[in-house]
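A.,

Following up on our hallway conversation. Structure tokens first:
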């Protein structure tokens, strides 16, 4: 395919996205329902329930249910619901509930109905499988065996049924559907909300109106012995009606209005898991994924017409009389671009609340906040003006980032007559969505719900998107597009006259600025008549140009446009219309220089694409836009002044062939100090370095370190309380918000501990100890338990049970087996910290579970090792934990690994994985966690997240995520902790650098930023002062090392590597090991000796790797597993498959106690003022990069 053809295919595939995104779910796309499908009908009325005995159980949270209860009020219960007065307006409920759309509903008027049935037909199960597998694309495909289909049809609010309000609201009705699909070990809830079926969002509760609710609640669960408490729950909606309306407009399954959740698993359950396919901006892979859905045929003029899979039209009635035929596979469009779908936010007219800005005669002192966050305010003699900063463009009130794609949303209203028809087609809040690729001026516009008798005739009106194209047109050197001049608040009034019959159409578009979603808001009104274009005809619009003339607060333009209508019979007809428009706006009257815009500019429009999709009732336009000289493209592209045959300024050549002059290379210091020069065709552009901005002359860069916005949270210059008590949240500009952490109270700058012991949290026979941010409970002497429950009956501890089992029992009392090791227990029943084998004379340290801590064993005659006391076996309970379904890390050594928005742990018994005790330790939905590291001193886990991007930490004994670094990151991946020097190291594969920071993120320093391409894995050896990292650059992969201060860098391995993803270092054996997804091997070497050897071959796709003793543990993307390898034997010895089969990322070992050893930085920060970094010969004292104005001393190593 030629380049032009590829371009058309790309544009056409982007339009394909609109076919799905602007089309809402319809009733016709429900799972089949009604009496002909075998449905039962719930008795009509209010708050009525019907028990349904199931052929196969439903899994809900960690329970199995053979009976469920269908209720009028929009939910399914796991037990007989109590009276509605006990649960209306309350989420979570006190009983197990799946709330499809829970409110005070009524079917007593004879119109509304609730249908329900069990279904195991292949068609229904296949339809359920499609919805589930689309929502969880990374998981193994699910094949349900049983389904429950519940459909609420035309149900009304009880208040509207009981009391006619006289305002028409009694006619509002909702329709929605719940499908519970179950396999042997998993159950899913599929929720369907049609756009036209969601007519009200709240019902009356207790005399006030409350938003309806969707979500899941386990209900009350047992607590201690004689009491209960609220169990886990999951809310889909909030207390606001907008969240209810969003159910029909958004998705987590890749299809608007369809929501999928994993609600129960067996034998283990962690939490409700939402579908993973939400709307995201398009990426570079969009073309290849979407193009498979479209077939193309050439236009006569060389363009393309794209034909899409047919879509089932909107139906106002459900399938009441249709036989049960299962899903309509041929009529349903499936989204395959699930993870990268562009996000479209539908904005109702009532939600548009963009204040119209006006300048006044005041100064910046009181009006600086009226400028954009990305603008500076400047005072003039008559008042002030706002100006966008370098890197942004706009009118200063609204500034957008250069090169960033722009989105527009809005509504279309009005009346349009077609041909000679005496009756108009009326518009009423039809959706308009637009997407602009700013880097090339390509604009796309889609309008929904256009009936077939009008749609073909609107195809010539690409003018509907013309002003959008002008606003974000590609700027030729020296010219500005519309948004650069007037921003996003203006009104465009256009008149279209069709020749020769003089039909006229007026188009009014009001642009109301940028909303909270960072989308431009536009309202469009159409009034008039258009000539008819027959159904089945296609329209091709020739390239055209349009002259824009500028004056104060007014812009006018006009053009004549030709278009060709191709009929079904092969004939074609060329038609013409004239276009005139006026744009009104408010400029800043105080800056005379800002008015120096060219009085006349020309908009050139080509590659115009139009299409009406009758199946989906969509009209789509696409066009490329450039703004430049009125002499046309010849002034820029031919680059010569034809009379003399000379090249234009900024170009060189003989007049026939002209070449751009690179002023940045040929003119020394073209941009002056503190700036960089960017060459552009025919000109060049100066940009100030970070920390500088243009002075009033527009050329000189002056320092603004004191005036420019500062993220005080990242810089550590905020006045919030210490990080152990408060959290600093950056809110833009130089602003931030201080908030107290859970367990503390105050305004954030001063936070005081909450004494939880005042509220009697512990058992009556326990003592409560208040701690900073939490509390502990411990049973009184003579009582035993976890502090939340205490009993006078003491059970044997783990140590005592272990000891007594080995001692056995005879008529002469306990008798140990000769030569056998028997543990010793302290007075509290806990394992003594040091244990010895009397027969062989060996002693060693143990953890709380009595397991030997590697590296602590001493031989005969060498005495007992110095062991850290592990404390009592029964630890005081600490509460509360952040989530009911997330477990604090228990005592012992564990593996920590990242998977699908969570961090999980697997306990180790010796070197073996205790797979049945694996749990989620931290739940981080919507995050993609790459690297994990563990601080053995504070028992904290650190991780990198590429979605924010950010680096965060959390206490594994309970507590939420605490941000550490959130700025100047692009793709943080590998992470490592120096537990002695109290620093963290990480790699950034987009910025291609390695950085270090203090554990709170305040002292930050770039160590290496050269000769890196794809750095990922990183580890440190604090005792010896070495750092190791892997670069999986496909052209030249390598493993490197340096001192921990970045000096003495050298390549360790560069030959016979493929994709070295993971690194681990075992200090006991001095072995550096790596996992390679290209060579499919694990290899090891001593970095000093260089004795490289293969530890394991024929592995599949390793990602993360860690070691513990003789074993290596790695995560594998193909097997979705944690795999254990005996490093010495070179064999795979065990495999752990997490309950949720999704991609696994980083893995690390969380030791029961810190490894032995020390370095210079372990005491008094090595005498350094800021960063202390260990080296093989001592340490280096380094200053952070942001140490300007701070007293910091750098010292060499010793």
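Then the amino acids I'd put at each of the 1198 positions:
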């Amino acid at each position: 395919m030629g380049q032009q053809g590829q371009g058309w295919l790309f544009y056409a595939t982007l339009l394909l996205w609109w076919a799905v995104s602007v089309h809402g779910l319809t009733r016709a796309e429900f799972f089949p329902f009604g009496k002909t499908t075998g449905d039962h009908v719930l008795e009509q009325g209010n708050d009525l329930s019907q028990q349904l005995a199931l052929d196969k159980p439903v899994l809900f949270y960690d329970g199995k249910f053979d009976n469920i209860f269908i209720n009028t009020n929009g939910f399914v219960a796991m037990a007989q619901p109590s009276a509605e007065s006990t649960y209306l307006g309350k989420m979570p409920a006190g009983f197990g509930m799946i709330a499809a759309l829970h409110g005070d509903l009524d079917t007593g008027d004879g119109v509304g109905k609730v249908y329900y049935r069990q279904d195991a037909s292949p068609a229904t199960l296949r339809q359920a499988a499609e919805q589930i597998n689309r929502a969880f694309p990374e998981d193994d495909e699910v094949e349900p065996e049983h389904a429950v289909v519940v459909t609420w049809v035309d149900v009304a609010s009880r208040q509207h049924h009981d009391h006619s309000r006289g305002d028409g609201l009694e006619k509002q009705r909702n329709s929605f559907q719940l499908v519970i699909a179950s396999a042997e070990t998993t159950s899913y809830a599929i929720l369907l909300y049609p756009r036209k079926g969601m007519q009200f969002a709240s019902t009356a509760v207790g005399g006030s109106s409350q938003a309806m609710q969707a979500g899941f609640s386990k209900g009350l669960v047992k607590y201690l012995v004689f009491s209960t408490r609220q169990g886990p729950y999951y809310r889909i909606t909030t207390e606001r009606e907008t969240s209810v309306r969003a159910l029909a407009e958004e998705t987590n399954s890749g299809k608007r209005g369809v929501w999928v959740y994993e609600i129960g698993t067996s034998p283990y359950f962690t939490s409700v898991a939402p579908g993973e396919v939400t709307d995201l901006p398009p990426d570079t892979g969009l073309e290849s994924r979407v193009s498979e859905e479209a077939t193309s045929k050439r236009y006569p003029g060389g363009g393309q017409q794209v034909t899409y899979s047919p879509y089932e039209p909107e139906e106002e009635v459900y399938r009441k009389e249709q036989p049960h035929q299962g899903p309509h596979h041929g009529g349903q469009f499936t989204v395959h671009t699930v993870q990268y779908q562009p996000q479209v936010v539908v904005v109702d007219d009532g939600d548009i609340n963009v204040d119209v800005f006006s300048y006044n005669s005041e100064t910046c002192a009181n009006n600086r906040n009226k400028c954009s966050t990305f603008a500076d305010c400047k005072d003039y003699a008559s008042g002030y003006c706002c100006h966008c900063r370098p890197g942004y463009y706009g009118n200063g009130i609204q500034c957008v980032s250069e090169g960033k794609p722009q989105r527009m949303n809005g509504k279309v209203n009005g009346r349009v007559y077609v041909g000679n028809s005496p009756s108009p087609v009326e518009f009423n809040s039809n959706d308009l969505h637009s997407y602009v690729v700013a880097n090339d001026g390509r604009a796309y516009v889609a309008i929904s719900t256009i009936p077939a008798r009008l749609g073909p005739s609107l195809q010539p009106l690409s003018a509907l998107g013309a002003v959008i194209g002008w606003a974000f047109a590609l700027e030729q050197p020296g010219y500005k597009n519309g948004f650069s001049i007037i921003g996003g608040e203006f009104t465009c009034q256009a008149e279209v006259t069709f020749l020769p019959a003089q039909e006229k159409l007026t188009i009014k578009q009001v642009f109301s600025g940028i909303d909270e979603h960072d989308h431009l808001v536009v309202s469009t009104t159409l009034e008039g008549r258009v000539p008819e274009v027959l159904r089945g005809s296609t329209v091709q619009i020739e390239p055209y140009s349009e002259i824009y003339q500028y004056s104060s607060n007014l812009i006018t333009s006009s053009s004549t446009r030709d278009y060709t209508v191709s009929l079904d019979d092969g004939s074609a007809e060329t038609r013409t219309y004239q276009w005139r428009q006026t744009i009104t706006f408010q400029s800043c009257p105080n800056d005379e220089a800002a008015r120096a815009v060219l009085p006349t500019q020309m908009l050139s429009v080509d590659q115009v694409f139009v299409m009406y999709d009758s199946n989906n009732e969509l009209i789509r336009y696409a066009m490329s836009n450039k703004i430049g000289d009125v002499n046309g493209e010849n002034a820029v592209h031919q680059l010569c002044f034809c009379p003399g045959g000379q090249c234009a300024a900024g170009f060189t050549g003989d007049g026939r062939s002209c070449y751009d002059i690179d002023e940045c290379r040929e003119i020394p210091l073209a941009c002056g100090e503190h700036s960089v020069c960017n060459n552009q065709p025919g000109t060049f552009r100066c940009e100030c370095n970070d920390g500088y901005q243009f002075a009033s002359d527009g050329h000189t860069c002056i320092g603004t370190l004191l005036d420019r916005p500062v993220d005080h949270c990242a810089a550590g210059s905020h006045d919030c309380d210490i990080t152990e008590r408060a959290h600093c949240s950056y809110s833009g500009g130089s602003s931030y918000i201080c908030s107290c952490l859970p367990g503390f109270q105050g305004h954030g700058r001063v936070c005081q501990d909450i004494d939880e012991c005042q509220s009697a949290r512990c058992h009556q026979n326990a003592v409560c100890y208040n701690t900073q941010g939490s509390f502990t409970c411990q049973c009184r002497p003579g009582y035993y338990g976890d502090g939340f429950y205490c009993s006078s009956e003491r059970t044997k501890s783990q140590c005592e049970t272990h000891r007594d089992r080995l001692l056995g029992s005879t008529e002469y009392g306990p008798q140990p087996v000769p030569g056998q090791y028997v543990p010793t227990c302290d007075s509290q029943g806990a394992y003594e910290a040091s244990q010895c084998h009397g027969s062989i004379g060996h002693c060693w340290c143990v953890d709380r579970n009595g397991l030997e801590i590697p590296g602590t064993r001493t031989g005969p005659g060498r005495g007992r090792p110095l062991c850290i006391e592990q404390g009592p076996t029964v630890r005081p309970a600490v509460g509360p934990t952040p989530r009911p379904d997330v477990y604090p890390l228990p005592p012992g050594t564990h593996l920590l690994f990242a998977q699908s928005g969570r961090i999980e742990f697997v306990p180790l018994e010796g070197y073996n994985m205790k797979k049945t005790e694996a749990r989620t330790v931290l739940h981080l939905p919507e995050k993609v966690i790459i690297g994990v590291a563990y601080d053995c001193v504070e028992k904290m886990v650190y991780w990198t997240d590429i979605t924010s991007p950010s680096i965060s930490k959390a206490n594994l004994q309970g507590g939420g995520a605490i941000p550490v670094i959130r700025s100047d990151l692009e793709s943080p991946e590998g992470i490592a902790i120096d537990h002695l020097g109290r620093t963290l190291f990480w790699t950034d594969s987009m910025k291609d650098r390695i950085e270090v920071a203090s554990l709170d993120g305040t002292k930050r320093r770039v160590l290496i930023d050269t000769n890196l391409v794809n750095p990922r894995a990183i580890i440190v050896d604090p005792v010896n002062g070495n750092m190791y990292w892997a670069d999986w650059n496909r052209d030249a992969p390598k493993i490197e090392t340096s001192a921990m201060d970045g000096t003495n860098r050298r390549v360790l391995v560069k030959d016979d590597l493929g994709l070295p993803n993971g690194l681990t270092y075992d200090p006991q054996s001095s072995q550096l090991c790596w996992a390679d997804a290209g060579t499919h091997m694990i290899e090891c070497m001593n970095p000093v000796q260089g004795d490289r050897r293969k530890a394991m071959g024929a592995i599949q796709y390793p990602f993360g790797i860690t070691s513990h003793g003789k074993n290596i543990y790695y995560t594998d993307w193909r097997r979705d597993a944690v795999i254990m390898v005996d490093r010495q034997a070179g064999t795979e010895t065990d495999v752990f498959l997490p309950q949720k089969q999704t991609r696994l990322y980083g893995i690390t070992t969380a030791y029961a106690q810190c490894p032995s050893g020390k370095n210079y930085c372990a005491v008094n920060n090595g005498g350094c003022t800021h960063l202390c970094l260990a080296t093989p010969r001592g340490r280096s004292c380094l200053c952070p990069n942001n140490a300007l104005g701070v007293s910091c001393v750098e010292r060499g190593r010793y």
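The chain has a mean pLDDT of 79. Curious whether your intuition agrees with the design.

B.
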